[in-house]
Amino acid sequence: MYSQGLIGADGSTHEDAAFLEAFQKRVDAELKIEPNDPMPAGYRKTLVRQIAQHAHSEIVGMLPEGNWITRAPTLRRKAALLAKVQDEGGHGLYLYSAAETLGVSREELVDQLLSGKAKYSSIFNYPAITWADIGTIGWLVDGAAIMNQIPLCRCSFGPYARAMIRVCKEESFHQRQGYEIMLTLCKGSEEQKAMAQDALDRWWWPSLMMFGPHDADSTHSDQSMAWKIKRFTNDELRQKFIDATVPQAEFLGLTMPDPDLKWNEQKGGYDHGEIDWDEFWRVVKGDGICNRDRMKARRKAHDDNAWVREAALAYAEKTAARETAVAAE
Amino acid sequence: MTEKNTPLWEVFIRARNGLSHKHVGSLHAVDAEMAMQAARDVYTRRGEGQSVWVVRSSDIVASDPTEKETMFEPTGSKIYRHPTFYDIPEDVGHM
C-alpha cells in the first residue's frame, strides 16, 4: 500500500551536483541515512510523505476491522482480532515517530490526515461487510502489505527501516490469522464457503491496487528507486503477490475473480486481467465507498478525545508546578 | 491549533537480564507515568522486555553531527590503542 505513498510525491531537489553525488555515493554503498545527516530536500520531502501516508494507513486501517471486534464468532477470534487491531495502532505510532525524525511534528501529521491533505491507502475505503471479509483482509491486505514492507526493511533511511523491521515481525501473525479464518469457512457449510468466495471476489482487485499504478504511470518512481527508498517497482511487487497468493486460493478451493488469470510458463508467473484503474483513481481521489465514513470516524475520534488530551496536559502541568513549589520551600 | 504539542520521550528496553537497555523508539506523552504506560503498550506487546526506561527527548544531550570529524577523528590515528599494534613473538603463545 505504501507505493501509493509516492503518488504525486515530488522528489525534485535543488542542491548542487557535488552534494547530490556525495549523497548518492553513500546510498549506493548501502550506508544508512540517519536523521541528522545531510540529505537532499527532495529526499526528506519524499520520505515524510511516504512514511506519513504509511502511518495514516495503519491508523485508518483499524476502522474496517475494529468494526468486527464485538461481532467475532468466538472468543478465540475476538482475542486475535483485538490484538491485531492494537498492533495496527502500534504500527501507526512507530511510523509517525520515524516521520517526526525528519522535522515534522505529530500534530502537523495528524492535522494533515484530518484535513484530507494527506492520503492513506485506497484499500481502507472498502467496507468489511461479512465475517469472511475479516479473513480476507488478513490474508490479502496484510499479505500485500508484507510484500511491500519487506523490501522497506532495507530502505536507505534508518528510522523507517528500523520501524519496518518491527512491523514485519508482527505482521506475519496478521496474515496467518486471516488465512485460518478463510480455511475454517471453506471447510464449513455451503453458505460459509460461499461467503468466503464472495469476500474474495470483492477484495481481490482492490488488493492488487494496493501496489499503486503501473510502472509506466508511476511518476517519480525512478528517483525513489535511485535513493533506495523503494527497492522494487509497483508491478514487480504486484507480480510477486499474485504468484504467492494464487496457490493459496487454490488450496482453499476458491476461484480468483479474474477469467484472464493463467500460469505463464515462460515468465514463471501468472498473467492477469487488466486492473480497473478508473476505480483506483476514483478511490484515491476520495470517491470510494467508505472515504467519507473513514474521515468522519477519524475526526470524531479526534474531537471526542480532545478533553482527554487537555485533562492529561493540565494534570501534568499542575503536578510539575506543585513539585517546583515544594522544591522551592 | 490552540492545543499544545505533547512532549516527546525516548524509550529504552532491557530485553533480559544480562543485556543493557537499548533504544527502541519514541512516543508522545504529557508526563512520566503516561509515557511509561504508553511505552509498555507500544513497545512490549510480545514480551520484548524485562525493564523499560523512558527519558524526555529534550533532556538528552547529543553530539553535534556537524562536529563529527573533530569529535571522533582523533581516535582514528591512535592505532596503539589496539592490541594488534604490539609485536609479541609467536613463541610466547596466546596473549
Automatic annotation (TrEMBL), chain B:
Protein name: 1,2-phenylacetyl-CoA epoxidase subunit B
Transmembrane segments: none
Ubl conjugation is among the record's keywords: no
Species the sequence originates in: Denitrobaculum tricleocarpae
UniProt EC number: 1.14.13.149
Record's keyword terms, sorted: Oxidoreductase
GO molecular function, one term: phenylacetyl-CoA 1,2-epoxidase activity
Signal peptide positions on this chain: none
